[in-house]
Recover the amino acids of this structure.
């Protein structure tokens, strides 16, 4: 039987582990902290299948200068990290050309379609179907100009068959009452789903994995060494042998790729939020404040307010003033929101400069499969990515063309 070692027990690693098990493989998952220790625990819980446009786009380049002026705004670069992030930002800027955006939109759409098709069978497989909610997303705009500026994006989504409904303020009140009058227009996308709570979901995946006979090890992986018919995973003084290895260590994956001699330009877009008690607001859908770079989401465990991008690397301490700034804004946008009793969180989005993940084999060995760099969309794309990883592990033709996701594309 094929033995697979998956490095990383986030939503990507555990989803891949479960699909590999369903194809008859024996799987060990190694995580330095255990399941749901990283970004997968604290995200907004959205399956944002309608989000097919890459973040790297002319739209973000228009907004970025204004956003960067506000040190606690939607996009920030701490001075201590500005030089380190410069090469990544240059690649990001190059990915904003119309040709690059068209190519990454097509690739993103293929992965989204696959992920949406795979999601419900995967939830059934992992016994987590009752955690899925289909409440949609309401994107809100302040004034006619912001609303009109969104039309190109909606036209692109229309071309890909995505359902959406533009709304007046009065119509929006039927979907989400209590929005401040500054929001004059909105667009509702029903095909945007949510998970009850992302941490509980990943813990449930870990439980299902163990019930299927999976082994979970708590250890820090320091490298992977290819062998003639597999690879060894190095954990301190110990090594475990595998026929195949999956690197799914989120924002830390490039460090493992480095041990295989590959330099992959993975950076982190740090994100922040605050989770309030469940009765903080009568929230009926996810609401996206696109002009302010954050969302408000209903989870089974609370109301989560968060987002923002801080290009600050893996080592700087968190700056929770960002969580506070978003919470203050949320209170003015939804005046009924009760902002007391919250828990703050910061997480590392694993991000590649063209907004697409790396899904493919390592250069040094076809027995090592990379699955990382999902940026803002790791939960959304987890079931599709798991299917693709399992295809690679089984030497089966991948369900979609993997060329745009090649880890060697940079
Ligand atoms: C504020 C915020 C909101 C978000 N909202 C959404 C959303 O609504 N929808 C969505 O789809 N996505 C969202 N995301 C993005 C999503 O959370 C990530 O893309 C996703 O969680 C990445 O999953 P992962 O499994 O690759 O990484 P992680 O969840 O970070 O898991 C990686 C794991 O690897 C382990 N690890 C790392 N290095 C090593 C090592 N050397 N040895 C052993 N183990 C190691 C870590 O302990 C960790 O458990 C959001 C992110 C943030 C920050």
């Amino acid at each position: 039987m094929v033995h697979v070692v998956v490095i990383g027990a986030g939503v990507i690693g555990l989803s891949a582990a479960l699909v590999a098990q369903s194809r008859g493989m024996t799987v060990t998952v190694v995580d330095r902290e255990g399941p749901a220790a990283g970004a997968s625990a604290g995200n907004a819980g959205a399956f944002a299948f309608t989000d097919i446009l890459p973040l790297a786009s002319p739209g973000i380049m228009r907004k970025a200068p204004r956003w960067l002026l506000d040190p606690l705004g939607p996009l920030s670069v701490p001075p201590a990290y500005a030089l380190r992030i410069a090469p990544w930002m240059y690649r990001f800027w190059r990915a904003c050309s119309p040709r690059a955006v068209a190519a990454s939109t097509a690739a993103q759409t293929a992965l989204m379609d696959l992920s949406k098709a795979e999601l419900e069978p995967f939830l059934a497989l992992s016994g987590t179907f009752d955690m899925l909610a289909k409440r949609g997303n309401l994107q809100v705009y302040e004034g006619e100009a912001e609303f009109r500026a969104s039309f190109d994006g909606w036209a692109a989504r229309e071309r890909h068959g995505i359902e959406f409904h533009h709304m007046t303020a009065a119509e929006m009140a039927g979907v989400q009452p209590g929005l401040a009058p500054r929001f004059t227009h909105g667009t509702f996308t029903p095909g945007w789903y949510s998970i009850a709570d992302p941490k509980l979901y990943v813990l449930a995946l870990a439980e299902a994995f163990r019930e299927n006979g999976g082994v979970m090890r708590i250890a820090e992986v320091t490298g992977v060494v290819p062998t003639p018919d597999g690879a060894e995973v190095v954990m301190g003084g110990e090594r475990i042998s595998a026929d195949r290895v999956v690197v799914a260590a989120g924002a830390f994956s490039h460090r493992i790729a480095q041990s295989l001699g590959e330099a992959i330009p993975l950076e982190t877009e740090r994100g922040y939020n605050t989770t309030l008690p469940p009765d903080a607001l009568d929230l009926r859908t996810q609401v996206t404040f696109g002009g302010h770079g954050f969302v408000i989401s209903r989870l089974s465990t609370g109301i989560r307010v968060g987002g923002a991008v801080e290009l600050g690397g893996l080592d700087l301490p968190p700056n929770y003033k960002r969580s506070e700034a978003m919470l203050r804004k949320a209170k003015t946008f939804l005046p009924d929101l009760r902002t007391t009793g919250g828990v703050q969180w910061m997480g590392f989005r694993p991000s590649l400069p063209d907004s697409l993940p790396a899904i493919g084999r390592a250069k040094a060995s076809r027995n090592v499969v990379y699955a990382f760099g999902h940026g803002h969309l790791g939960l959304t794309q987890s079931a599709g990515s798991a299917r693709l990883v399992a295809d690679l592990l089984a030497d089966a033709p991948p369900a979609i063309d993997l060329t745009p996701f090649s880890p060697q594309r940079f």
Summary: The mean pLDDT is 96. Residues 98-125 form the longest helix (28 residues). The longest strand covers residues 267-276. Residues 1-53+97-131+193-265+354-410 form a domain with the FAD/NAD(P)-binding domain fold (CATH 3.50.50.60).
